DNA sequence: GTCATATTAGAATAATATTCTAGAATTGTA
DNA sequence: TACAATTCTAGAATATTATTCTAATATGAC
């Protein structure tokens, strides 16, 4: 497991908080039993904690799942941020976005599986607002870059609300398939294919 | 509600079986309470049935969810089949596939939301095999058409396992966003955008 | 009609989530 | 340091929900 499986980036020696131990345990129990199969009791025992502590930190089961989901989403965004910020051209930005996504899922398969399984639940929970915010945070700067591209004639003028789907849709679909064993090649190994597809979808001159 | 929300295509007057009433009730309860929130007791009451009947037909909660999922998947496949079979060129086939998907989700939003919510659970259940089979059934003929396209030079030679993602990934991503109220335009209204993107992704001459 | 099988019913049980009260640890403040 | 306020932990008690079980009822084959 990479270090990203510990929810918060603590130093090597720092004892993780009880809250973080519970989140770590939730991922472990999810991996073993699935989202529906994992129980409060399993998580509590794995973390050497108590149900009281659990409910103190997260309110209820849904709150635990939402907290874990949002923390992983933060990690996912943070890890591709440097790459995206370093990009100067629209094409580089697209590559950074797609590669960042494929790379994160490839190296955090359990976390990614959890996120796909929990997303629709989080989207209808009381944390739905935070989710929307983070999505804006993720795609906001990108949409700005694309807007200038549209003005300069490099990027096609398309319905704004379809851009994100055109860019990451194929990657997301492939990652889900990979995590369900429907395909075997690691997502990141198809970076060129998915970057090219994203570029073709939005570029005015798809074959440079 | 369209007629497709009744799981089996019975005639107008035919009294639905107890099994079908339970499946209908499950969709209704899902719509009201979400996948995690819907309970056996709610479904049973809505269907005027009993828990015994429930467990007789489906074994357990997971079995009910899987049965409903697979039945909806059948409906989804069946409804785009005519359009796909009628297509003669690769481009027409791609359009039929993408349009069929967008159209079904647009007109069966509750069913589609259920499928997205339940998919990862079904994929790890004992019905995972049936799911894989139906997916092959769906994309098998299509991959054959594409193969001839590759041989004739019209379709790019790409890793086989990425084709499905390139074709339906953006559509699926957009449909999820629509069902979560992150975008407002009905999926089917963006048919041209997503067909064009799919074609650009796989065609050797994307701008005809 | 009668047997075998499929289906339904609902009470009883088991598994699980959640609440609640008390106590321990921690933090802020004088 | 002392002390109060607050946060955190513990785990028994409770509530909710899924599942099992036994018996009764319908359905279909012969």
UniProtKB/TrEMBL annotation, chains A, B:
Residues of the DNA-binding region: 39-58
Entry's EC annotation: 1.2.1.8
InterPro entries the UniProt entry points to: Homeodomain-like_sf, HTH-type_TetR-like_transc_reg, HTH_TetR, Tet_transcr_reg_TetR-rel_C_sf
Catalytic EC class: oxidoreductase
Molecular function terms from GO: betaine-aldehyde dehydrogenase (NAD+) activity; DNA-binding transcription factor activity; transcription cis-regulatory region binding
Cell membrane is among the record's keywords: no
HTH tetR-type domain mapped to chain residues: 16-76
A Pfam family assignment: TetR_N
Transmembrane regions listed in the UniProt entry: none
SUPFAM superfamilies (UniProt xref): Homeodomain-like, Tetracyclin repressor-like, C-terminal domain
PROSITE patterns in UniProt: HTH_TETR_2 (PS50977)
The entry's keywords: DNA-binding, Oxidoreductase
The protein, known as: Betaine-aldehyde dehydrogenase protein
Gene source species: Salinisphaera shabanensis E1L3A
């Amino acid at each position: 497991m990479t270090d990203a499986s510990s929810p918060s980036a603590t130093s090597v020696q720092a004892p993780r908080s009880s809250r973080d131990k519970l989140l770590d345990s939730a991922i472990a129990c999810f991996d073993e039993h699935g989202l529906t199969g994992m129980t409060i009791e399993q998580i509590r025992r794995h973390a050497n904690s108590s149900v009281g502590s659990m409910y103190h930190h997260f309110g209820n089961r849904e709150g635990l799942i939402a907290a874990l989901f949002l923390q992983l989403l933060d990690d996912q965004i943070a890890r591709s941020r440097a790459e995206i910020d370093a990009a100067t051209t629209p094409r580089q930005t697209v590559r950074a976005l797609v590669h960042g996504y494929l790379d994160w899922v490839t190296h955090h398969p359990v976390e990614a599986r959890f996120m796909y399984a929990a997303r629709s639940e989080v989207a209808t929970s009381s944390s739905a607002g935070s989710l929307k915010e983070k999505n804006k945070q993720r795609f906001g700067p990108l949409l700005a870059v694309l807007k200038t591209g549209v003005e300069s004639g490099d990027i096609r003028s398309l319905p704004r609300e379809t851009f994100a789907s055109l860019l990451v849709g194929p990657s997301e679909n492939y990652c889900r398939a990979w995590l369900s064993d429907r395909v075997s090649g690691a997502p990141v190994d198809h970076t060129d294919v998915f970057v090219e597809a994203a570029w073709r979808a939005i570029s005015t001159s798809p074959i440079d």
